[in-house]
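S1.2 Input.
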Amino acid sequence: MDTSLAQTPDAARRPPLFLLYLPYPLVFFGGVAVLVAAVARGIPYWRVGPPVLVAAALVVVALELWLPHARAWQRDSGDTVTDVLHFTGNILVNQGSVLVYGPVLTLLHGSSGLWPHLWPFWLQALLGTAVLDLGLYVIHRTSHRVGWMWRLHAIHHSSRRVYWLNGQRRHLVHELLEGAPGLLALGLLGAPPSVVACALATVTLHLMFQHGNFAYRAGVLRYVFAVAELHRWHHQRRWADVQGNYGAILSLWDYLFGTALPKKGEAPLDVGMDDEPTLPQDYVGQLAWPFRRDRK
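S1.3 Output.
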């Protein structure tokens, strides 16, 4: 074991408290508010969604450089290329879902269904995000209990550091599985494509913060939102230690369904997955590994 990574985060100089508590609400809630307000005013998602996500990513990268949670996690240990490829593939799947959803909805039932179309758009976007996030929670939790799903999901736990980019370190098949329940529910309810687009972008934005390697605090918001200080406990090296804190956006699901980990304070930096020693670190190897007979 690398004892340097088993330690708690850097005891580096911290900025004033308000700077620790400001980034999360300012960038996450601010970015979502800009996105939802623009789409509500009739601006096409593709003109505002990708720019908001790119701007948020640049801010998170800057925060990781300026105020790292763990300097050890800043170092490339041969995983950056793998994470870039996972990020690229999963973003294409994620955003491609926006393009596919509209025609599928039309085939299902046009604009009918039980969806509350008369609600203000911001409230529809909030509901759509909650439905999508609940689906993510269910699949994430199930992936820790069902063997073949765990083999797909273990790839997400294979990184020896946690930073903004590897929030998207997931097998392409698992990416499709995670989004399927929420998107299916939204489609059956008749949620409009604009709502689904905002919900998917909100998840993408939040994953940057959930895995962000910078020292921010959420305060009481952590009892509602699955922020980094909670999610880092989910990335500890032993499989037995990571059975909880499954929420992608809302930690509320973990508290409601009894899966919130009882850990308090800062998680150790010793992350990864010791229980899957044959799991490769390269992208192609990780895509093939769940289907290999000799993986053990």
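S1.4 Remarks. The two ends are 21 Å apart (CA to CA).
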